[in-house]
């Protein structure tokens, strides 16, 4: 059993890189001793819910425990107790000196890089640097208009059961098209009324499907009804959109709430494009997808959904080594990202630059596999547990059809990345307004098993995006269907993130 004396007399080290950066930060802060900057780094890193990646080495500065934790009992007991609790959360049943030294090293390394990023944001200005630290710690600032509890309450979306009158109306209209059903459950979500139907006869599902438009017109809502399986025998969901004036807002408040709930221990690259029809955040791991196709016509909400995906990744980029590679043929969608610190390369806005970026990514992928082979590992996660320091990369293409039509070689490069990028830590989000077989080959589609379909004009376009009809019945304005890599379909609504919201989140 490790004693307090052992902990206080032991030596603790950082990585070589963290040590070098820490010395520069010490000058900015005006700290008299090394332990001041180290404690600040530890505090910044421990304030994050996720566990840090292992430090690349232990060849940096060395500090004794008595200096690091303080020579007063109340102070060193506080630090040791805090670190011990972190170890227990990681599953360590016994507090060993070796585990504590490694924990300090990993948090020291991550914390220094967090501080360096804040210094860059502040432009070297001390007051601005302190302001960033205050903001990152979620301390109240002058001018806050609402306490946190109020903000969280505002983020909750209201759901309720539908009343008896709505049930009876639907049952009556179902009988007029020859369908006998029992309504097992109802839900009034932010935009959609959902009915869980138990069908009496085996052929009722086919009858209902063939008369769906007739049913919709008799209800006065046109051809907007949709039908999905409920994964129970003789049971399905009937979704009935409500008028736009009755919609609940799904805005940046709900987006921030979802991002705060990401479990980085359970998911490597969590993303949240919106909320499900019952108002709960829709979250999935892009790393397991491993690539995503996003399609929808003008006005469907494609651009907003794409930004929500990227911004949700950005929300924890300080806790996970992550870079973005962006291709924007229209030169408008990713303009706010230009010059951003998390970019792998500058935003590509023409065909030549796009091709060069794709070629660079393929070269990077091949180089990574060579390093993995030398280390005896198969993927980036395993390599990073050794000496590899390469970040995960997310490639986002705003208009795939334009990119492919301008140069077919781009499709070849994208296909290679789709086939081999996952293990190398390179993942893709491909967006298009014109999903058709000529601009989106079967090979590329096959390697993008996860799909998000927003409203499209034709059934054929829906089949290109998600291999089946349904997207032509969506409402637009962010109404979507997610087809996961497991093939299951989820109805959802994209966050309405305005351009000014996106700009603020990118700062």
What would you note in describing this structure?
The chain is globular, with a radius of gyration of 26 Å. Helix content is 43%, strand content 17%. The protein folds into 3 domains: 4-144, DNA sulphur modification protein DndE (Arc Repressor Mutant, Orthogonal Bundle), CATH 1.10.1220; 164-246, Threonyl-tRNA Synthetase, Chain A, domain 2 (2-Layer Sandwich); 252-506, P-loop containing nucleotide triphosphate hydrolases (Rossmann fold). The protein is an alpha/beta fold. The model is unreliable at 138-155 (pLDDT under 50). The protein has a 9-stranded mixed β-sheet. It has a 4-stranded antiparallel β-sheet with strand order 3-4-6-5. The chain has helices at 4-9, 16-29, 34-46, 65-69, 73-89, 97-122, 126-136, 148-155, 164-176, 204-210, 212-218, 252-260, 302-314, 351-375, 380-384, 400-406, 409-420, 442-446, 459-466, 499-506, and strands at 11-13, 62-64, 181-188, 192-199, 226-229, 235-241, 270-276, 281-285, 292-295, 322-327, 392-397, 426-432, 450-454, 479-483, 489-494.
């Amino acid at each position: 059993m490790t004693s307090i004396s052992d902990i206080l007399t032991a030596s603790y080290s950082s990585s070589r890189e963290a040590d070098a950066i820490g010395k520069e930060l010490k000058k900015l802060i005006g700290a008299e001793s090394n332990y001041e900057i180290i404690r600040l780094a530890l505090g910044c890193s421990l304030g994050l819910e996720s566990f840090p990646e292992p430090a690349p080495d232990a060849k940096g500065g060395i500090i004794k425990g008595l200096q690091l934790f303080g020579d007063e009992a109340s102070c060193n007991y506080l630090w040791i107790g805090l670190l011990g609790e972190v170890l227990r959360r990681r599953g360590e049943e016994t507090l060993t000196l070796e585990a504590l030294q490694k924990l300090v090293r990993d948090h020291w390394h991550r914390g220094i890089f967090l501080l360096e990023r804040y210094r860059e944001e502040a432009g070297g200005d001390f007051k601005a640097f302190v302001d960033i630290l205050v903001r990152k710690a979620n301390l109240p600032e002058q001018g806050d208009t609402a306490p946190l509890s109020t903000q969280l309450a505002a983020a909750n979306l209201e759901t309720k059961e539908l009343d008896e009158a709505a049930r009876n109306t639907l049952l009556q209209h179902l009988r007029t098209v020859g369908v006998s059903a029992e309504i097992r459950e109802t839900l009034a979500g932010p935009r959609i009324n959902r009915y869980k139907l138990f069908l009496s006869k085996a052929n009722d599902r086919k009858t209902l499907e063939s008369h769906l438009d007739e049913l919709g017109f008799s209800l006065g809502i046109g051809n907007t009804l949709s039908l999905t399986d409920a994964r129970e025998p003789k049971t399905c969901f009937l979704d009935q959109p409500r008028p736009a004036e009755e919609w609940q807002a799904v805005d940046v408040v709900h987006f921030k709430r979802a991002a705060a709930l990401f479990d980085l221990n359970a998911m490597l690259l969590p993303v949240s494009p919106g909320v499900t029809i019952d108002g709960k955040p829709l979250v999935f791991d892009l790393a397991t997808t491993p690539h995503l196709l996003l399609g929808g016509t003008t006005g469907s909400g494609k651009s907003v959904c794409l930004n929500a995906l990227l911004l949700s990744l950005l929300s924890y980029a300080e806790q996970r080594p992550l870079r973005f590679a962006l291709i924007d043929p229209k030169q408008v969608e990713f303009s706010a990202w230009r010059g951003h610190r998390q970019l792998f390369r500058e935003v590509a806005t023409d065909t030549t630059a796009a091709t060069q970026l794709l070629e660079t990514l393929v070269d990077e992928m091949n180089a990574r596999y060579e390093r993995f082979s030398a280390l005896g590992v198969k993927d980036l996660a395993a390599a990073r547990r050794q000496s590899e320091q390469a970040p995960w990369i997310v490639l986002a293409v705003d208009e795939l059809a334009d990119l492919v039509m301008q140069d077919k070689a781009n499709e070849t490069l994208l296909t290679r990345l789709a086939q081999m990028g996952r293990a190398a830590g390179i993942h893709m989000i491909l967006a298009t307004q014109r999903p058709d077989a000529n601009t989106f080959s079967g090979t590329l589609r096959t390697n993008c098993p996860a799909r998000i379909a927003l409203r499209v004009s034709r059934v054929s376009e829906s089949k290109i995006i998600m291999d089946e009809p349904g997207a032509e019945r969506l409402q637009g304005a962010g109404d979507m269907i997610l087809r996961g890599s497991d093939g299951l379909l989820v109805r959802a609504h994209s966050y309405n993130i305005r351009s000014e919201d996106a700009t603020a989140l990118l700062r």
